[in-house]
Amino acid sequence: MSWVPTGLRARLVITFLLVAVTASAMVAGLGYQIVRRGLLDRAERGAVADVRETLSTTTLPIGAGDVVWPSDTTVTEEDLGGVVQALEAPQRTVIVTYGDHRRSNTGARFTMSDVPDQLRWQAARRLVYQRVLLRDHPWLIVATQIQRATRDGVLRPTGLTAYVFVPLSDEEAVLSRLKAALAQAGGITLVLALTLALLSARRVLLPVRRLGAAARALGAGELQVRLPVRGRDELAELTATFNETAAALEDTVSELRTLESTSRRFVADVSHELRTPLTAMTAVTDMLSEDAEDLPDDAGEAVRIVVREIDRLRVLVEHLIEISRFDAGAATLRRETVDVGDTLADCLEVRGWADRVKLTVPVGLTFSLDARRFDVIVANLVGNALNHGAPPVVVSARVVVGGERHGGLEVTVRDHGIGIPEQALAHVFDRFYKAGSDRTRSVGSGLGLSIAKANAELHGGSITAERCEPGTLFRVWIPKP
Hints:
Shape: rod-shaped
Structural class: alpha+beta
Largest sheet: 5 strands, antiparallel
Strand order of the largest sheet: 2-1-5-4-3
Number of strands: 12
Order of helices and strands: HHEEHEEEHHHEHEEHEEHEE
Low-confidence stretches: 62-73
Radius of gyration: 53 Å
Distance between the termini: 47 Å
């Protein structure tokens, strides 16, 4: 997998470097081509001019200035050597041909086989030149058929053709030094570009990083965070907008917190105020319920309805008071080492559920927990299983040692009813949530499971619900203190 830079800093630096390197390469390439073309053109013009001047002043061995055709004159090797000697220069190779005769200078490095065929053909008509690469080095070949003017001024070919190999080693050395200089300049440009890119990225990204840190602090609840506004550019406008947003959010959250606090205090006050009349109403309904059987059918049914609804109201008020304690942060934990089996048995016995629930607990199992809050947890789970599930209801407990949770108490409550619908499992611990229309008018307040979860979390533990076949399984986990 190819590496792709994802950070804004990396992308800015890479983009800056790419632009700098591309611009530097284009400038260096164009400069090199211009210098190379000028340097080679000058070398070509100098070599061609030198050959022309040399040939124009060379005394030819034939015709004494007049044209004498090769068939009428005998040209010796010494005659060709004179032309070669006139064109000879250091490091040059000179080849002069006359018909089948060939003559080259001493130490010649090349032969006619090194002359391109096209150049030979063109040299028969005019002076031509061509750059070639021979023996891994650049050379310039200047080729021409030597001509002389007759007495009437007409140029006639002499039959002699000269090939002059001019070395371009000096020009090659100059170009090599130029390449090295351009490479060094490119390296310096790259370093400067990298430095400028890092400085520019830091200048641009520092406000962005500050905004990111401020946004994280804002998300963590530090609503008073603000950033200094510097300059008048887009980042300054963004910073100012962030400050305005943070101020508006702080005002909104403060207002919501005030409303929430007022609402919680109202619920707590109402719940406490309802306790006194409920106590009196409960006492009266207890007396009425004893005589309900002696009353007429309609009156008896009315008494039973009143008793049932007052019981629902009493449970709701007690749950609201308990919830208000958690919301106010007033709930405290008082741990003590208890016998888990005895605590579970007492919870079931007090509520008259001992004969309806199967209890499975190892003998002598002890654990450190808040007995009152543990009783609330178990009572809510077992009551939910008895009211909405089907027998048998099984409660089991065990201490788990080690594992991912590093040890703790696990209590499970399972019924064998139709089970909670899959889509409702994620909401069973929400306040006032009741799964199914058949539960909307049930005795429960809709707060029992929420209170059980709050008590488990106060212990540092958790409660989960899952479907079984058949029924529903609630699992309570309380870690070691």
